[in-house]
Inverse folding.
């Protein structure tokens, strides 16, 4: 991938889209290969790939800008969701209003959980990625890509699952372990994409 403004905009757009989708679908609990995880597990994993690519090509400062942008967008989306809940429904839509509140009200909890986990995990990911890049003198991309993502996702998973699903699922610890296993697998699977998008181009 060439280090251009257009490519940076695209990566930021994919990052924001994946982040917001994760907040929207996060309340749905699914079963993947027998593991209980939120439906957001795939879309949220993409955010770490995006920041790793940005960190590799544009540097730590630009990656931190992306993380800060994600925070602002999440807060803005939360404000819009709360406004939508507060607005009075039309006469013919009264029956759907309670369902609307349940769905979007749950989304508010997802956003709060996501924001808390997001701040700590993404900041750690950017810092650790950059630290490992310096430690390995720019060699062994797979080390900084995988170690920074896998470590950060331990933080993210524990915080997000606890806040989002406490009192709602029968076994919180198993859900945390399950999600981390899936995230660990996804982190391995995104390595070829990381190499592809950060390869040297003319």
């Amino acid at each position: 991938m060439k280090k251009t403004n257009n490519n940076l905009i695209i990566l930021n757009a994919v990052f924001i889209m994946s982040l917001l989708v994760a907040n929207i679908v996060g309340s749905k609990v699914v079963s993947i290969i027998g593991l209980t995880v939120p439906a957001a597990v795939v879309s949220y994993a993409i955010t770490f790939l995006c920041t790793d690519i940005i960190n590799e090509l544009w540097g730590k400062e630009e990656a931190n800008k992306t993380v800060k942008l994600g925070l602002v967008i999440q807060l803005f989306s939360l404000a819009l969701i709360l406004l939508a809940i507060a607005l009075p429904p039309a006469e013919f839509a009264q029956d759907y209003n309670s369902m609307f509140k349940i769905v979007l009200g749950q989304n508010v909890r997802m956003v709060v959980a996501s924001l808390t986990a997001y701040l700590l995990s993404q900041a750690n990911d950017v810092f650790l990625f950059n630290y490992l890049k310096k430690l390995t003198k720019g060699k062994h991309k797979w080390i900084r890509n995988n170690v920074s993502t896998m470590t950060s996702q331990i933080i993210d998973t524990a915080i997000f699952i606890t806040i989002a699903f406490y009192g709602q699922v029968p076994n919180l610890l198993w859900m945390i372990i399950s999600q981390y296993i899936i995230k660990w697998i996804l982190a391995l699977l995104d390595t070829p994409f990381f190499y592809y998008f950060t390869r040297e181009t003319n």
Summary: The mean pLDDT is 87. Strands lie at 29-32, 35-38. The first strand starts at residue 29 and ends at 32.
